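Sequence only, no structure available. Ideas?
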Amino acid sequence: MKIGFDISDLASNRADGTTRYTMELAKRLPRLGRQHEWLYFCPSLSKEIEREIMASNVRILRSPWPKYWTQCRLPWEIYRYRPDRLFMPIQQLPILRPKTMQTIAVMHDLAVHKFPRQFTYKDWLLLHIFSAQVSREANKIIAVSKATAADIARYYARTKDVVVVGHGLDKDKFRLPRNTQEAEDGRVVVRQRFDNSRPYILYVGQIQPRKNLVRLIKAFDLIAEENKACQLILAGSHGWMRESIDDAIKESPVKERIQQLGRVDDHTLRALYWGASVFVLPSLYEGFGMPILEAMSCGCAVVTSDNSSLPEVAGGAAVLVKATEVRNIKQGILEAMERREVLRQKGLERIKDISWENTAAQTLAIIED
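Reply:
I predicted one. Tokens follow.
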């Protein structure tokens, strides 16, 4: 069987959950489905990424195009190469496509319905159009969590052929230190970015409003009144509409103890998890919440919100807080610090059966079905 796979996200140079999801499946699906021919469609691709995803049964088909690649250039490639199935790891389908070709699309979240003002108008419009299109037209939909599947049913009234397959975890990248020397090397890596001799609270993710960072900063301000050493570290690429977050940092009475690291590589990220007193993901909404699993796998205590998919992903191994209540976020962080070792063990137990291999195997079964 010929299986088309839109890997255009890998040309975006973004660092978010969708891009990691695409990368991890692009590496694994052809190895599991060796009997199939895999056609990887993209506008461009770096040689580094190509080396990671290349396999004997993979053809990488670059087709440069200035704008709207998925709707303007991908259809041409599909008609040219005629895959039997098309796997779209983003919640979009090419409008023009062969009627006989089966489509499998992934729905990551429907935040656009819940927080419309936290998107630019262009993104809001496109997400509405293409999410609705996927819900109407995809032969099968993969929802990355039960919460996302429930949102698909709520907003689009679709339940048929919607299958829940959660994100995975790369335990070679995100794990405990193998020995004391590796742990020390990790501390040295972090020390190059900030003074890690003092304890720190860690956030990992995009810097954008839905992540609820203004309230996290205010909760940290309250903690910092009593804890004179603690720091808040924000690691992640700059998102959209971040002005309110920048203002909250500037107005913080302890702004010198709030560090923004920007995007970090996986090696540094792992070391950040190792050294953190607690990891906090206080989002207003998440389709999944991949950093929760990464933090747990690195032995870090986790605090996250009690909304959307986050309790589902945490699986009883994290402190849950109300995202809209600053004092509740503060109390959750303090509780996690006190119960750090208990939460650490619960987190390591939680991630035992989670892997990208399992996610890829389930995804392949859906594509083949």
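The mean pLDDT is 95.
Hope that gets you unstuck.
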